[in-house]
Amino acid sequence: MRPSLVIVGAGPRGTGLLERIAANAAELYGDQDLDIHLVDPYPPGAGRIWREAQSPLLWMNSQAQDVTMFTDATVDMAGPVLEGPTLHEWASLDGRTFADRPRQGAYMRWVYERAVAALPPGIQVHHHARRALRVGGPAEGRQQVWLEGRPRPLLADLVVLTLGHLDAEPDDEQRALSAHAREHGLVHLPPDFTADSDLSVLAPGEPVLVRGFGLAFVDLMVLLTEGRGGRHDGETYHPSGREPILYVGSRRGVPYHSKIGYDWEGERPPLPRFFGPAEVESLLARPGGFDFREDVWPLIEKELGFAHYHRLFSAHPERTRTAWSDFEEKYAADDAAGIRALVADAVPDPADRLDLTALDHPLEGVRYASPEDLQSGLRSYIEQDLSRRHDAAYSPDLAVFLGLLSVYGQLVRLGDIGSWWHGFFSYLASGPPGPRLRQMLALSRAGILRFVGAGMTVTAEHGVFRASGAGVPGATVEARALVEARLPHPTVARSRDPLLRELHADGAATTPEGLLAVDPADGRILDASGTPHPRRFALGPHTDARGSGAFTRPRTGGPAFRQNDATARAALDFLRALPRRAAA
């Protein structure tokens, strides 16, 4: 029997790992034989989330020029760089286009096929369109990967989990809401991938409470409006009459910030500056560990502020009162209080100052006299956001975006830092395309979309769901339908994936946030003592080495590329060293 590697999950992460195996095989594995088994019920390359069989009304959330599956010279990795086309180059699209997801799925299928074709002749790939149920076997011997509907397991010398986004069992609150819905004949849609939700249960003209104002909401909005025959014409929405009325709110009460609508010009901020490898090493070396808010956040705040003010002083010096060299010297030496005083003196317009706390709480303390005033107020907020994010006069915003990418590249080495940062990053850096927010405004003017505001609370009582927000004290909305517009939190304990639950029961360690603990060096799964499993690896959002998204912008260092390369090289080294008799 030939040596065998099983990769569970054939979406972008599994495909990226396969590309790195192909890139490193000549150096590390030579012409030896190997069977690679890809296990995923969805098509290899695209996987579940990016599969081609979904509505073309759903878009990528990045411009086509910012989506790549290929490494470049900015990636800090041991393996060779094998450059390839971005989505816009491959599909001959305008680089600023937000491609539909079926187009992205076709790109991913092509990337997968290219990776398979690049493997040496002795390495064969086999796709199993099934779910993996569990992994067994001793650490010192071959693993058994049991598949749904297959009487015998796949035998594997190594197993890599690249599972992507997973379904989850409901928490206590979601169970209570579902029970109330069953008892009173209501509709409750728990957190899910929107394209897989049964939206037919949401009746035309009926009010629907929607909790969550991020990207899952944008998908929901599109499928329940254009997806039901409505039509946008400039700033006007023409209803089909089949739309429900969406009442949306969240903790912040506003949608994620619009994608920035201009290109970078001029000098880039020299990043990292205050939060780089040396600072990460220092944090990791602390005997008692570190606290994110006390120890990490001040470094992030200083790093993002440096990116912001570097751009302001270099591109818009007329809006500052001092020379950059003087400002930079004092900025580097000051603590947070000193920096606030420095900025107040050197940057006269508050609109040019970076206030991350205010950005995270945009409606803090804002009150409206009536629900209609709230609608008007939030439309004005969205209009102002669109204007700013498409005006190069505010290019420090783009510098902060670059700072966020730099920070994320460092944070992946720190493991589980809690969920707040990931939400904050997405809110600032991974919001919807500008056209989606313009559609949101049109739907609001048409009365199809109603804002509940910040601090949205939902209760289940008296046979209905009720929602209220902090913006209009005392105002409530009643509905017989509630949608949780967000993906399930990727905890191992509540995952519906039986393989992950079995791994946890078998001794795999999890973090306080419920993520699978892995060795940051190569992705090997850790046990409770911190010992890496020699034959089991994991990559992706269910691990504490999760990255910022499925895809990487070209020439940004790509932490996911670095992780994929390290895991591929570790796997090939292990497989090459196997005695041939042990693989028989």
UniProtKB/TrEMBL annotation:
| InterPro entries named among the record's database cross-references | FAD/NAD-bd_sf, HpyO/CreE_NAD-binding, L-asp_N-monooxygenase_NS-form
Location of the FAD-dependent urate hydroxylase HpyO/Asp monooxygenase CreE-like FAD/NAD(P)-binding domain: 6-165
Source domain of life: Bacteria
Region spans: Disordered: 531-559
One Pfam family cited in the UniProt record for this chain: NAD_binding_9
What's the name of the protein?
FAD/NAD(P)-binding protein
